[in-house]
């Protein structure tokens, strides 16, 4: 198949239009973060830096960012360990019930968040009789984060095959040595990509969070939900969203560079 | 979804000298007992998923068979099918279920239709450099909070919002808040989740196959239909699982841009919160669970679950 020049042009045009549509609402958020209007009228009546100053002094927002970072880091760490274990188990072994287990991993993300949310809420409070806290929140997040690590790692394992691992054990390396020096280095970028998605998933999660966070635990999405409809706070929320998007460029860029570097070597 | 590249270069590994310590002996023992190795690998994750997740879902199923004491507001553990019957026969639940499934299907179709040309452009037309920039451009909006984006659409679609401002010179109107706004916003929110697996799927289609098809006389459309589509079908289904199930359980976007419309998530939410009727909420929650299970069962054979 050789695409004609007009066909390539059409595809490029569609891509450009959709990207413009994707960024239009973000542009609105960006412009509104400088708007003097508090109820987001368009076009903005005037511009001010007031909200940016307020956002960086807002203790509620900064605390919420820290809480979200803690929760996302902890649940990503758990997901990395569990997701790697389960994908090695499913990829390197043949056994009965493998399909059932891979379905089990996908389930927490495939089922609607509100189902996961009320099921875990019910289990924690009435089933186990524990108070909701930051720990219950981390447990809930880790549960649905496993799948992103699992998917990336198992796809990588499938592609790698076992020849290098076999060679390593033929040459006398034990299980740990083979994992440390052969398997793990080849998994590193898959772990990074999976971990990044897990982190993003946890950082932005609101529905499961509503049902599993303790009363004192305020993650960023919960804080945003509280403040979105307050006239004085809505522009501050916009500022925070803009900062998050800008900050997110760094990890995405690194993930891309790692993936890109590997591609060139191939 | 798999954002993935190929295998990294293999570095020269220095194998440490053999030692007769515990790690070495454990390694020897484990390499002779693959079943033990497997059970050690799987015990922790299965313990976690089974204990945390499956037990919780089972408990929820049981709760649906209980009832709420109308005087104390406490859950009383008397067995009854009343909640299930109410959900199955109530016209409210039927209407809302149909509406929710309709919205989820429409969102999924819209996202796939938009994602296909973009993913194709990214994977097969754009230069490697442009490709990398496009992936970043698609991934970046994922980091702007879900709530902020939904709220941005509320502002875009509002009376006197930017949408009205853009289309009013052409005599257009903003759709206002309602189901169309919900569908637009949900399609917007889940679009990256659909583009990325399809892009990854297209990247795995070798260019040589497309050339072979052309050499054998296949036109653009027949190549797309007979070569590309069958190869990326699992990836398309994988993307659809995201948009379908994320739409199916959503209740926050509907609250922000949906006007007075309710989806299944809203019914569950009201019954957990304001109505304080967890058993009924649990019974309603089984509608999306059943729908998702049916969907997963239907697509399992395509191999889509390996493409998420």
From TrEMBL, chain A:
InterPro entries: MetI-like, MetI-like_sf. It is found in: Cell inner membrane; Cell membrane. One of its GO terms (biological process) is transmembrane transport. Coiled coil: none annotated. CDD domains: TM_PBP2 (cd06261). It is a multi-pass membrane protein. It comes from the Bacteria. Its main location: membrane. GO terms for cellular component: plasma membrane. Residues 65-255 form the ABC transmembrane type-1 domain. Keywords: Cell inner membrane, Cell membrane, Membrane, Transmembrane, Transmembrane helix, Transport. Pfam families: BPD_transp_1 (PF00528). Gene3D superfamilies: MetI-like. The chain crosses the membrane at residues 12-34, 69-88, 100-120, 132-154, 190-214, 234-254. Belongs to the binding-protein-dependent transport system permease family. This is ABC transporter permease. It comes from Cryobacterium ruanii.
From TrEMBL, chain B:
It comes from the Bacteria. This is ABC transporter permease. Its main location: membrane. It is a multi-pass membrane protein. One of its GO terms (biological process) is transmembrane transport. Keywords: Cell membrane, Membrane, Transmembrane, Transmembrane helix, Transport. The keyword NAD does not apply. It is found in: Cell membrane. Belongs to the binding-protein-dependent transport system permease family. CysTW subfamily. One of its GO terms (cellular component) is plasma membrane. Residues 97-297 form the ABC transmembrane type-1 domain. The keyword Ion transport does not apply. The lineage of its organism: Bacteria, Bacillati, Actinomycetota, Actinomycetes, Micrococcales. CDD domains: TM_PBP2 (cd06261). The chain crosses the membrane at residues 40-66, 101-121, 133-153, 177-202, 223-244, 278-298.
